[in-house]
Amino acid sequence: MNKNQILALFIEQLENKHRVALASTQSAIAAATDEETVPENKYDTLALEAAYLAHGQAMRAQECEQEIQAAKRIVLANDCEYVRVGSLVSLIAESGELKWLFISPCSGGLTINYQQQIISVITFQSPLGTALKNKQVGDDVSYKIGTTEFYYEVDSIE
């Protein structure tokens, strides 16, 4: 797999997410400043609620910008002795199922479709990411969510 292409797809997804956040911000600002939202009495809070929404959307857009900048700073190393930010990792589950992961400093939970393969983006803050940190090929990985324990073996690190 080509990590440069995967990183480019990841950044593209983040930029799309940012565009949606900006559009939502503009829409919320328009609603907050529309003359129809002017309060008719002291109990009419529509304008106030729209202003809060606009502020929240603006914060979301700012977070998206920060995620894009963090993704653009990811260094894709050539030597892949251990799992780190920028690693593309394949895991084998006990069932034999292969799972692909891209380690990122942000935006865990996104998925990347690459050559008919689903790659999950995870961070080291997630339970699986914490368990994977600094692991090498052949290492066992286990983590627990609630009462369920998951077991994998590191198949490859690119």
From TrEMBL:
UniProt keyword Protein biosynthesis present: yes
Domain Transcription elongation factor GreA/GreB C-terminal span(s) in chain numbering: 111-158
Claim: Protein biosynthesis is one of the keywords in the record: yes
Stored InterPro entries: GreA/GreB_C_sf (IPR036953), Tscrpt_elong_fac_GreA/B_C (IPR001437), Tscrpt_elong_fac_GreA/B_fam (IPR023459)
Gene3D superfamilies: Transcription elongation factor, GreA/GreB, C-terminal domain
Domain of life: Bacteria
GO molecular function, one term: RNA polymerase binding
Keywords assigned by UniProt, alphabetized: Elongation factor, Protein biosynthesis
Pfam families: GreA_GreB
One BP term from GO: regulation of DNA-templated transcription elongation
This protein's name: Transcription elongation factor
Source organism (scientific name): Vibrio sinensis
